[in-house]
Sequence to fold (78 residues):
Amino acid sequence: MGVYTIYEIFIFNPKTKQFDSLNFPSNFSPKCDMFCDVKIDKIKKTLTSSCRGGARNHTDVWKYDKNKKLILSKTQSY
Fold:
């Protein structure tokens, strides 16, 4: 890993009226090991994480499925 801004993300839980930590999903194979250089697309409702590995740049796109579980929607390297 290189120099990144690493994010710890919290999601508001209306039932408890508290913020819960968004855990990095372990059941997927993202290119980035954590939420790095995060960008949020409010229209597409996605969270994009970007990182570098060797001579390549990697991007992971996360979104919530219909069961409100965070899933890896797309990953790419360039």
Remarks:
- Residues 10-77 form one domain.
